[in-house]
Amino acid sequence: MNNQFSMTQKIAISALFAALAYIAFQFLKIPIKLPGAGGSTYFHLGNTFVVLGALMLGGVYGGLAGGIGMAIADITSGEPIYAVTTLFLKLVMGLIAGLVAHKIGHINEKTETKQYMIWCTAAAVVSLGANIVLDPLVGFFRNKYLFQVDAHLTDIVAKLTAGVTFVNAVLSVIAVCILYRVLRPALQKAGVLHKEA
Question: What's the pTM?
Fold first, then answer.
């Protein structure tokens, strides 16, 4: 039996994760107005599918799938100017999750539930933690230097202190761990756990 997804399966499952990220971000989000000039953001679970995709497919496919899904959500929700940075941030998030889970933790070589769940949690925490820091920083540089908008460092502080990205990260870590715990045995039984080259 094959020990990993075929290319056709990877593409199909990547498309599924892109669709799930799109739906979670586009239709299941709660808009939040930030104080001052910080703009707005959303409570959403779109990042869940970026990390879960990286755990199941590897960092590149998971990051691209989630990034494409959430970038399409930006475009279709009337905010196309954010699509490129969304794609970049989610790709980075997927790459970090893949690095922690597969390259460092060798998650799919673990056979005991406790062992692979430790690496699942670590990958989710590290990648979503990186997003907490990178999201306002990338947004600041995009606004100031790409869009030539009057952006201030206080915008970064406003976004960080609002805690929305942190709450999104905590909710996504919980959702990733629950979904991975449910899906892992089926993937293992089918013999299609992702293997890093």
Answer: 0.85
> pLDDT class for 89, splitting at 50, 70, 90?
very high
Q: What is the residue type of 184? A: R
Q: Give whole-number Cα distances, 105 to 18, 72, 110, 121, 169, in Å.
A: 25, 32, 9, 11, 21
Hey, what amino acid is at 92? V
Pick from 167, 189, 182, 170: nearest CA to 55: 182
- From the number of C-beta atoms within 10 Å of its C-beta (0-12, 13-18, 19+), residue 42 rates as middle
User: Which of 51, 79, 64, 59 lies closest to 14, judged by CA?
Assistant: 64
Residue found by looking up tokens 């970090």 in the block = 96
Confidence of residue 139 (pLDDT cuts 50, 70, 90): confident
Whole-angstrom distance, CA of residue 13 vs CA of residue 49? 11
- CB contact set of 113 (below 8 Å; sequence gap of 6+): 181
Residue 31: what are its φ and ψ, rounded to 5°? Answer: -70, 140
CA distances (Å), origin 73, targets 24, 25, 66, 77, 175 = 9, 7, 11, 6, 20
